[in-house]
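Service request form, structural biology core

Requester: graduate student, group of Dr. S.
Request type: structure prediction, single chain
Budget code: on file
Notes: please return the result as structure tokens.

Sequence provided:
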Amino acid sequence: MIQYTNRELCKECGGKCCRNGGGIYAPEDFEELTFNSILKLYYENRIMFYPVFDSKRKRAGFILRVPQKGCEKIQRQLNSVNGECAFWDAKRGCTCKDYHSRPRGCKLMIPQKKNGRLECVPIYDEEEALEEWLRYEPIVDNVCYYLLSLARPEASFDKVQCKICGGACCKNSGCYFSPKDFKSISLEKMRSIISKGYISLVFVPKMQTGLEQDVIIVKVRNKYAAVCDTDPTESNGGCILLETGGCSFDDEDRPYGGRALVPEKLEGKTCTRGYSFRQCAEDWLPYQSILEALYGEFLWKDVEFDGIC
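Core staff response, request fulfilled:
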């Protein structure tokens, strides 16, 4: 990769680009990209989650950037921040340990002087970065939503916003159950409920949760999905319990994942999961022997939806 620098011009400029935003990371800037490694970078104040609108998919996606001073490290609105790079120091300049440890977006800035004006021309922009970060979207999103869920108020779903929205999240997928949603959890009890046809068992790989093992969790089934849903990222007709007037459950009986939804205000995004995959997987971890047995039992069964009663 060609790298551009001009220390004399940078010194004369005084870091104008650094004072107006954090550099853009490329995936290749990191030795590894796992749930736990991204979480560690966040707590070390080395990254922020920055939304970029994807014109091809007509929705927003996150890229990783250097944090900006005085700004939230998880941005929820497009083009909403413009602050000094967290790595910038007025006396020392960039505080990265060396030039090669800087984000790709910083290394691919061409300093130039034109008509007496000093400016940097970016070669690696947000849209190009988003294209590369899309392959890591499941991990980045899961870390982001896990962090957001830690600060979520207990009662967060909003009927007014749901009515305005029209249930976009429900039309996309059923929400996730917590073990606390069930009076008791046993093989016989869960078999009886699953046989009604409105529950799916979902296998979640450890790369999406940062746990030491893969976990089976429980969610509301999608209309065209099997009981053992092998691809819950596909909408498959949306939530099987979504009716014309909304959810089939009364408010207090909704799965915890539905009660914990946070109405989204980021263009192109549905509601934010207030109950993250990490939290859900941790909650269901003690019940894996039961869920594994049920997964094997229902894997090849065609179960019809028989109502929630």
